[in-house]
Amino acid sequence: MNAPQPPEPAEHTPAVRADDSDGRRAHSWGFGAFFLAEAVFVLVSVTLAAALENPGDDAGAIGFALMLTLILPTVLAAVVALIVPLVRGNGPRQDFGLQWRRSDVRTGLWIGVGGLVVTTLATMLWTRWMGPQASSAIGGLLDGVRLPPVVAVVVFLHVWLVAPFCEELLYRGLLWGAMEQLRFKQLTVFLLSTALFAIGHLEPSRTLLLLVIALPIGLARLLTGRLIASVVAHQVNNFLPALGLLLMSLGLLPA
């Protein structure tokens, strides 16, 4: 009689999250990745502000300096947010839910339009209450500045389309994923990411208003479990403010 053979060693398999039905590996980044992206944003912003402090009197030079200061920090922070899941996870498509689905776009549009109504009313009340202090950081930056048309359009497209995408990568992508990795409940993830989104804009006089603005955006992420819906909702929410900045920077609307 043959002696029983010892069992073969089990093959090593990557860790899988208990709540992942598709068998994808759990990512391994935490809050440090989010703070790294935020540090990139702050350092680039401070460096550009110091380097471009005196652009001169030329409207083109002023416009270029403002455009660079507004766009580059946000984009570079978003690049960090995209690199992290490539290095420590399954890539942004899986870990952030950057998967194009018509249902997510529809959800983002509906929530975005509903949120736009709420935030427009909240902004009107906030402006009446706070007066001149109610202006956003971008609005204050462009106050009284006449931009060349090309620069004004670039700023408009950034505020409307690019900045929401970048910010969603940071807050509803990188930060959201860090809290999921630590097993936070989804409601807690939603509330904390909303609060940090409002605080992270570094506009203390508008933090409460930013909380109201962020709630429907985070809700789109919470309901779908993916980032595209919150990106669309964020872009819908930013359209009117971006249009106002465009008209103001072209001198077609009073500052």
Automatic annotation (TrEMBL):
Domain of life: Bacteria
Chain ranges passing through the membrane: 31-52, 64-87, 108-127, 147-166, 187-202, 208-224, 236-253
Molecular function GO terms recorded: endopeptidase activity
InterPro entries: Rce1/LyrA-like_dom
Key words, A-Z: Membrane, Transmembrane, Transmembrane helix
Protein's GO biological process: CAAX-box protein maturation
Ranges where the record places region Disordered: 1-21
Residue span, CAAX prenyl protease 2/Lysostaphin resistance protein A-like domain: 152-240
Official protein name in the record: CAAX prenyl protease 2/Lysostaphin resistance protein A-like domain-containing protein
Organism name: Halosaccharopolyspora lacisalsi
